[in-house]
Amino acid sequence: MSSNEMSLGSGMRAGDASLAGPPPRLIQAYKDNDVDQAIIEEREREIRKINRDLVLVNEMFKDVASLVEGQRGTVEQIAVATESSHERAQAGLEQVQQAAANQSSCCIS
User: Fold this and answer.
1) Which residues of 46-79 are buried (b: 16+ CB within 10 A; e: fewer)?
2) Residues 6 or more apart in contact with residue 5 via CB below 8 angstroms
3) Is the separation of the CB atoms in 72 and 65 below 8 Å?
4) Are 14 and 23 in contact (CB under 8 A)?
5) What is the pTM for the complete model shown?
């Protein structure tokens, strides 16, 4: 057996090496590279999706801010009307209390 036959192992000769294909370590390296590349591409897709989702959330916040700003005037009108109603109710209560006090001193036969 020649030295070439011994170094290839399992009875293969130097001329048979081209038929065997790449060594298993090289095949595994290609597979590992493919897996790494697939992981990189998946992460990139996920990052792009997160970015799109953040853009949508940003647009929603802007829409909500616009709605709140648009309702500001209405909310202020409601606050003014509520305060005015409270003041009138307080004045009406005072008038009723005064009328009740005046009626007790009145004598009707």
Assistant:
1) eeeeeeeeeeeeeeeeeeeeeeeeeeeeeeeeee
2) 11, 12, 13, 14
3) no
4) no
5) 0.47
